[in-house]
Amino acid sequence: MRVQTLGLAAVLSSSIPLASGQCSRDALQAAADHYVATRSTGLMNLRPLLIENASYIENNNATALTGGVLSQTMIPAHNRSTIDTTACATYTELIVVDEAKPYVIGTQIRYKATNTSSSPDGPRYGGLRAVLIDSVVSTTGSWMFNASQTLSHVIEENWGPIVDASKRDTRATLQQAADRYLDLWGPNATAAAEKVPWGTPCRRLEGSMYTGQGRPDDRCDVGLPEGSSPPNTNRRYVIDEEAGSVNVLCTFQTMQDAPDSHEFRVEGGRLRYVHTMTVCACVFGGR
Ligand SMILES: *[C@@H]1O[C@H](CO)[C@@H](O)[C@H](O)[C@H]1NC(C)=O
Ligand SMILES: *[C@@H]1O[C@H](CO)[C@@H](O)[C@H](O)[C@H]1NC(C)=O
Ligand SMILES: *[C@@H]1O[C@H](CO)[C@@H](O)[C@H](O)[C@H]1NC(C)=O
Ligand SMILES: *[C@@H]1O[C@H](CO)[C@@H](O)[C@H](O)[C@H]1NC(C)=O
Ligand SMILES: *[C@@H]1O[C@H](CO)[C@@H](O)[C@H](O)[C@H]1NC(C)=O
Ligand SMILES: *[C@@H]1O[C@H](CO)[C@@H](O)[C@H](O)[C@H]1NC(C)=O
C-alpha cells in the first residue's frame, strides 16, 4: 500500500491540467509515467489509470489484464515514452535486464478523456483513462534478443525532443516514413527501397543487433529483403512530432506472423534510428 500511495502522490504533485476533454501532452506524459512506475509495483497500482473495462493485447492477442506480463512486476533499466496528442495515445519502450526474466517491451496505450470532476478520486492524469493497452513483449527466444546488449546501444542514442519547432516533421511525413520502411516487405522490395527516406547516419537496432558502428556513414539499408514477401499488416501507430518518433505495432507476416514493433526516429524527413522487437524464434524469411 505504501508504494501505491507514493506513486499516486508523485502523479498528483505534478501540475497536470485538469480535464478539458483534450489529451494534453502533460496529461499523456503523466499517464505513461504512471504505467512505467507501476511495472515495478504491479497491476493493482496501474488500475486507477484504466477505465473499468479496459482491454489488453499482448503480442497481438487479446489477453486478460491478469493473464500476461502486465500482472508481473519488473524493474525497468530503461524507459522512454512518446506522446500522440492527436490520437490520444502514448508509446513506451521498456528494457528489463533481469537475468532470469529479461524483457524488451513496446507498449501503445490509447486513452479517452473523462470528466474527472465526477470521479470520487478527483482529477488524475488530466482526466485521461486508458481504454487499451497494446504490448509487444520480447524476451529470451525472440528475434535477436539480448536485453543488456539492446540497452547498451539505446543509451548511446539521442531521442530527445526536436527543440526547434520549425524543424519538426509533420504527422503525415512521419507516418509515411514508417510505412515506406515497413513496405519493404511487399510485392517488390527493390522498388520499395527506393522510396524509403534513408538518413545518414542511420542506425538500426534489430532486437539487439546493431547496424551502427559510431560512424558518420552508418546505414540502415543493409540486409534488406529482396524480391517479394508477405506484407506487414495490422499496423497501429503512435506518432509524436516533437520527438520525431513514429511507432508501429504490426503483424510481421514474413516472420511467421510474428507480433512486431518498429519505432522510427525521423529527423528532417529522414530515418535516423530504427528499433525493432519481433516475437519470433523463426529463421529470417522462413515460414
Ligand atoms: C524512466 O526514465 C526516466 C529517465 O528517462 C527516469 O528518470 C525514471 O526514473 C524512469 N522511471 C522508472 C520507473 O524507472
Ligand atoms: C466499455 O466502456 C465503454 C466506454 O466507457 C463503453 O462504451 C462500452 O460499451 C463498454 N463495453 C463493455 C463491454 O462494457
Ligand atoms: C492467444 O491467447 C490464448 C489464450 O491465452 C492462447 O491459447 C493462444 O495460444 C494465444 N495465441 C497466440 C497466437 O499467442
Ligand atoms: C462534468 O460533470 C459535472 C457533474 O456531473 C457537470 O456539471 C459538468 O458539466 C461536466 N463537465 C463536462 C465538461 O462534461
Ligand atoms: C548478451 O550480450 C552480452 C554482450 O553485450 C553478452 O555478454 C551476453 O552473454 C549476452 N547474453 C546472452 C544471453 O546471450
Ligand atoms: C521491381 O522494381 C524494380 C525497380 O523499380 C524494377 O526494376 C523491377 O523490374 C521490379 N521487379 C518486378 C518483379 O516487378
UniProtKB/TrEMBL annotation:
InterPro entries for this protein: DUF8021
Disordered: annotated segments: 214-234
Domain DUF8021 positions: 167-278
Signal peptide start and end residues: 1-21
This protein's UniProt keywords: Signal
Any Pfam family: DUF8021
Keyword match Signal: yes
Protein name in the entry: DUF8021 domain-containing protein
